[in-house]
Design a protein that fits this description.
By secondary structure, the chain is α/β, with parallel strands linked by helices. The chain has one domain: 3-Layer(aba) Sandwich (Rossmann fold), CATH 3.40.50. It has 10 helices and 10 strands. The strands form 2 sheets. Strands 3-2-1-4-5-6-7-8 form an 8-stranded mixed sheet, with helices on both faces. β4, α5 and β5 form a beta-alpha-beta unit. α4 runs parallel beside α5, α5 runs parallel beside α6 and α6 packs across α10. The chain is globular and about 60 Å long. GO terms for molecular function: oxidoreductase activity.
Length: 342
Amino acid sequence: MPTPAVVKASNASFHPPYVPVAVFVGGTSGVGQGMLEAFARYVQGRAHLVIVGRNEHAAADIIAHLPKPDGGTDSTQWTHEFVQCDVSLMQNVRAACAEIRAKCERINFLVMTASYNSMMNPGVTNEGLDLHLALRYYQRFVWVQELLPLIQAAQARSEDAKVMSVLGAGRGNPKKPADLENLGNMTKPREGRFAVALRSLIMSSNYTDAMFAYFAAQNPGIAFIHIHPGAVRTSAHQASTDFDGLLTPLGWILRLILPWISVSQDECAEHMLYALFKNDRGLFLCDRYGDAVSSMVFDAPVEFGENNETSVLNGVSMPGYGGSDLGVQKIVEYTKEATRAR
């Protein structure tokens, strides 16, 4: 576990010889905002920063306070801008991706933090998708799929080419494999709000492992980092303690405990950037400190087989990995169909 001083010193050493292009999905609040602001500080504003979110006013305020390069830097090489998007609908995500493709020729860093944590409102979106999975997983798949050519363009220039999903890495358990008979959490009865929401929360972490294993195996020169932020003092984390009915006392207890075991969004952001900057290529599952729980580097594109053993990837044991070779195929195939344009 690196100390905060080690983490900040490592992050401060990030001085790319090029003007980086970074997209922060969920950058108007919480961990995403913390990462965006810290990233901007480390490059002294010398970057093309794209903030994706719903709140235009929050984005404008954040952008106004970001550091700006001094007069010696060509102003045509850097910009800080906002792209509005309600990520609960995949059609909105595709439209935002089209807008970003029109603005950027490459992307060095794609960071996704926008999420949903309610345990009492599982819901279904207007596109027929489980609400938790739409906000925690499906939209992230679409961002990667739609923006991958721009990330590949950065790799082709021998620049950083990295994708990060801040969610729930390291939770995979061989004794609790992904349920391939209930993909999307829409097959089994959706009875009991808490039970349905909990299933979706677990699925989103396992699905993200599978998604990143798939993309990393197909793109060996790009880093795909799934990371667990831990307990963070944000409004989203507060929402995860909002229970009602018989579970109301549990919410009270959690709200009393969380301030003592959680960290600020800025402290968390430093550890997230630590993992983002230091991992070059391959699949990485990282803990809240930015250390890799498991990782795999691919030297060439790989097609996975039919092995359905959880926490094993391409024949190699991966502690904390929530997928399997067969699971990667099934989950990605299902996801492509569930998120396709209609």
